[in-house]
Amino acid sequence: MKQVQIPEQLFFDLVKYHLLDMEDRLPEIKKGLTDKMDAIVMRELYSKYKTAPTTEEKEKARKEYLDRRGVSESFRW
Prior knowledge:
It comes from Anaerosporobacter mobilis DSM 15930. The chain has helices at about 10-20, 25-50, 55-70. Helix content is about 70%, strand content about 0%. It contains three helices and no strands. By secondary structure, the protein is an all-alpha fold.
């Protein structure tokens, strides 16, 4: 299983929420986890684009990566 690193502040927010019952940390936790999940997905798409065995799979991954990144169609090569 892969390991995931998170920022120290997110870790402390998770500790405060789960061990100290500080529920006011929940918005920061949700934002931090959402940002991390987005970064993981983007990295996976980029890796898939770079290592795809066929040209069609490469192009599909490249388009999905650029769509998620927000690059407009007119700016792409």
